[in-house]
Amino acid sequence: MANIGSLLTFALLYFIKLGLGDSSKLSEEECRALGFTPNLLCNSCKLLEEHNLAALKDDCESCCKADSSSDNALKVYPYAELRVCG
């Protein structure tokens, strides 16, 4: 039953969003209902089109946080180490 409640909440928030028609920022609760996490970075929204998810881009941009670094900056580390504990 909780799953139906979540679906109804999502549908309600989605239709409210459609009625607003602007790209204003959504609240954290609204973003969660749409399936976006609070730590979503705006650079991630650009990748949606590559995966045929362009319909989600407006909602993504309404929920994302600005990236702290520039779009073209790439952080390079000298090496990486993966440890698996058995």
From TrEMBL:
Annotated keywords: Signal
Superkingdom of source: Eukaryota
This protein's name: SEP15-like protein
Species per Swiss-Prot/TrEMBL record: Mya arenaria (Soft-shell clam)
Signal peptide region: 1-21
Keyword Signal: yes
